[in-house]
Amino acid sequence: MPDADQDVQLLTAAAVALNKHVGLLSELGSAFAAAGHELYLVGGSVRDALLGRLSPDLDFTTDARPEQVQKIVRSWADAIWETGIEFGTVGVGKGENRLEITTFRADTYDQVSRNPEVQFGDRLEDDLVRRDFTVNAMAVRITATGPGEFLDPLGGLGALRAKVLDTPSSPEVSFGDDPLRMLRAARFVSQLGFTVAPRVRAAIEDMAPQLARISAERVAAELDKMMLGADPVAGIDLLVQTGMGEVVLPEIGGMQMAIDEHHQHKDVYQHSLTVLRQAIALEDDGPDLVLRWAALLHDIGKPATRRHEANGGVSFHHHEVVGAKMVRKRMRALKYSKQMVDDVSQLVYLHLRFHGYGEGKWTDSAVRRYVTDAGPLLPRLHKLVRADCTTRNKRRAARLQASYDRLEERIAELAAKEDLARVRPDLDGNEIMQLLDIPAGPVVGEAWKFLKELRLDRGPLSREEATQELLAWWEERKARNP
Q1: Do 442 and 477 form a contact (C-beta atoms < 8 A)?
Q2: Are residues 62 and 144 both part of a single domain?
Q3: Most exposed residue of 29, 251, 286, 350, measured as fewest CB within 10 angstroms of its CB?
Q4: pTM of the model
């Protein structure tokens, strides 16, 4: 299809998408026009409109200063947020829409801390040229009648058509202003299916070490957006191949291991990318960030545990234990929440346990422990274990999946008989204190743990059985500690 025809299709898609917001846009455009100010829809909002996927979160720019913006929208908005006002941004809530209205910017950067010295501008063109990529440097004039003129001074439409990420100014200047833009390239590769222009890739390869200047929180936010994209594997591969990964996630590139001459193991990096793809295919209700991170990181302990055995084989003993520790260290360094760190590391720790299931010879006790150790992560663990089967041997793959089917059936059978979701001792703390005639303290915890292990081994006990076992344990303990 000729480029001109493709451009017409994109602009038509944008008109349809924007028309769904015409009431809001005309009201806002009228308010700014009445105050004598310009207003433009910009950035990702214009890009997404052209792609026919505009969300209720809209970005605008204006020549009005922040205090003037507040005055203009005060009587119209349902809510106003001032958290970004020092950078010229006023947040506005209107119905289901969340808007960000930012004064034209003409920032300069000190090139050391990479913090912007905020300067307001007077021209739209100066604002657009300081944006990260040309596909995010297009604008639509907003008037009292709604969307108006489409403005593309930097060739963003052509880049969008070609699905290429290029920078408005030279990439060295753009990334020097804000190195995080390099990570954004990986994010957009994942989210939009774009490639990076050769000059952009070359600049990233040269400037990747500058990502070390960016705060862990900003890095983690971009990584999460990349992981939640339609094709995170493409984004991850860009990270690794350009050197960005060595700065922000060195463990990922570290999984690239040469296959030995006997082909005794797969390349762990490529295997992990395949597991990530397969885990995504198993998602039930939209992107699952915890599952995706666990799939990517599940084997990061392998390089550190690789051993060449005397028989010519290769082993990775306890790589799940080492890997779980590595996950904790990396995710804590990136300032992830405790819950996120705990969940991802626990999945990495547990992902190999199923392989001890063999021919279905686990005892009921082993099944209970599997469920208990996974806790609320069990549905994700099911998906991770299934995704971890990447063998090309169709018979072996079918056997592994059938074996896991049987394990899930056994879990369901046990769950029908007992509450596997909350395996607790058959006596609570108060009953333990009463039966042993002891006060609250560490000893009660010991007794509770003993009864919990007993419950995992034997399943539910009657109160009489549990009491007998507790008293027997108590007598034995007193004999050991007279």
Answers
A1: no
A2: yes
A3: 286
A4: 0.84
Residue 254 lies in a domain: no
Q: At what angle do helices 22-34 and 3-19 cross, to 10 degrees?
A: 80
292-345 per-position pLDDT tens digit: 999 999 999 998 888 777 776 777 878 999 999 999 999 999 999 999 999 999
Contacting residues for 77 by C-beta, under 8 A, at least 6 apart: 92, 93, 94
DSSP for residue 168: S
**Whether pLDDT at 419 is above 80:** no
Give yes or no for a contact between 251 and 299, defined as CB atoms under 8 angstroms apart: no
Residue 134, φ and ψ in degrees, nearest 5? -60, -30
Count of domains in the chain? 4
Those residues with Cβ within 8 angstroms of residue 53's Cβ, 6 or more apart along the chain or in another chain: 17
- Complete DSSP assignment for 53-122: ---SEEEEEESS-HHHHHHHHTTT-SEEE-TTGGGTEEEEEETTEEEEEEE-B--EE-SSS--EE--B-S
User: 83 lies in which domain range?
Assistant: 3-162
Contact 168, 137 (CB under 8 A): yes
Contact criterion met (CB below 8 Å) for 182 and 196: no
The enclosing H or E element of 365 equals helix 364-374
pLDDT digits (tens, 9 = 90+) for 111-134: 555 555 667 888 999 999 989 999
CATH number at residue 198: 1.10.110.30
Is the domain of 153 the same as that of 60?
Answer: yes
